[in-house]
Amino acid sequence: MNLIFVADPMCSWCYGFAKELTTATNSFPELPVQIVVGGVRAGDTSIMTEEMKQFRLGHWARVEALSGLPFNRQAFIALENFVYDTEPICRAVVTARKIAPGMDLLPVFRRLQEAFYVHGQDTTRGEVLAEIAARAMTDLGYPTRAESFLATWNHDSTIAETREDFTTARRWGITSFPALLLEVNGRLHSVSPGYLSARELERNLRIVLERAGHDAVAMA
């Protein structure tokens, strides 16, 4: 039995949700969290115009109001010739998962988010992602060098595994992010099809856990 967080680090609602998920899961230490990356804008090639940036900032304002998390608007606006391609950062999450399969991936996911939303770093660049993720993994007790992280990030197998995550999310019918699922005996139960507060997540999870337990008994 485990939770599956389907998300994209450069989705602003996922940024807010990851904080709430971290809080909520403290009440359920027996439930590990698996992350499946969704690739909300994977492969995008268009350079963001000022109008596109302002549209994005509108979403950020709503997330900030609900979550209380900070956003570095000035740094985002200052990015020149920026292409909002989320495949590289999704692949960084997959890279961390490949290097340290037993690690709690959520803190690394959040560090990558903070690099973009708080510190204004260009998280479409492999070298930037490698430095952030390697430092986060090392802090979690999994010593990792940025150079080795980048090599794994660039590997064809990592690119393929990232695409497999995108395909899995679509196969599950998930077209918007974030989404939280509970997997029990191979069956998926929806906990949250979008942003929820930690309190709402805990309530939903208790309901789904009780329902899933009843289903398991009925099938026995």
UniProtKB/TrEMBL annotation:
- Quote the SUPFAM superfamilies the UniProt record gives: Thioredoxin-like
List the InterPro entries. Thioredoxin-like_sf
**What name is this protein filed under?**
DsbA family protein
